[in-house]
User: What shape does this take?
Amino acid sequence: MTTRVLTGITTTGTPHLGNYVGAIRPAIAASRQPGVESFFFLADYHALIKCDEPARIERSRLEIAATWLAAGLDTERVFFYRQSDIPEIPELTWLLTCVTPKGLMNRAHAYKAAADANQEAGEDIDAGVTMGLFSYPILMAADILMFNAHQVPVGRDQVQHLEMARDIAARFNHLFGNGREHFVLPEVVVDEQVATLPGLDGRKMSKSYDNTIPLFEGGARGLQAALARVVTDSKLPGEPKDPDSAHLVTLYEAFANAPEREQFRADLKAGLGWGEAKQRVYERLEQDIAPMRSRYEQLIAHPARIEEALMEGARKARAIAAPFLVQLREAVGLRRMTAALSASTVKPVAAKAKPPEFKQYREADGRFYFKLLAGDGRLLLQSEGFASGKEAGQSVARLKREGGAALAAVPAARAEGVDEADVVAALDTLIALAAEE
Ligand code: TRP
Assistant: This one.
């Protein structure tokens, strides 16, 4: 079985070295594994929640897309698209919104943080909170459930959102499943192995700490200048350095192979000066980054190529999303009128029609039930709860044997608006089919 791996990147910033080492590089490597089907998308609807500057959104979408492509993403193999090119996602968001308890959203970290800050400041708890922020986890659940992803690699801060996605999926399955699991329950994957890269000051590299090293911005000079600003201790050239306490070493090791690492450590212990060490780190990083940077610059200069890749990605993704959404719409009762009409006027014996069927299942109350569905899925007959599956099965067997004559003797009621004649006809069809076999 193929494993579907899906993750989204919010398009509000420009990728830095930490994003590359911590997310982009491992995601691309994982997408090359056999048996993996990867979905990577630009979460630009999510970006609108945090950012109301159109120019920034536009620029960030371009830069992030170009970065992933330049870093070697194989768009033939993976699904690479913009969230906002998949209209099925906001549509699914609404279906999910209608089954999501408000209380669940009250507990979402992002919302709670805003509400707590407001409370502390003596403001109305919802001051400055948009419905977008409040419902953020539902949109994210739709991103994931739309493609029935099995695994979702994310940062620690997103774990709660994944739990919510599972809750929402389970609830939808329960309410509208009719014996069918519409959604896979996604698993969160937080990769502890992947290094969190230190920034200039040694804390985790992050825009919010203003300690980032650019990946492509500013070119080779920009990279060199940023590395020159990495904080080190004040040991002079010739003095032995401790490689374990230098985050410059961590930066180097995120790119270097084993022998290179050993050499670097040995040289530092032997007194390599920080200035020279930084030059060596720069040269090693540049080895990997320079070819990507030139692809990146090419792409930025020809945005039509990026646009084309993304539109093709959207086409591929929608080929999955659109039929699935039809199924989900039908499950909640958004069906074609003509389908409903033909179901109540045309007898189930009509040519090529799917035969009626019995379904047996167990409910959350622990009891066993059966129901009779017409060929088009319309509910005809619904049983009461039985203490055992065996008893439910005995009633089904009797209906299949005796047809309409057994209706009065079996604890089951016709669905609203269904004539007894429809039920009898469906049972007759089943008896006739059994006789043919
Ligand atoms: N919320 C995620 C973040 O800020 C981005 C995101 C949006 C996402 N939709 C997703 C991640 C779906 C994984 C799956 O990092």
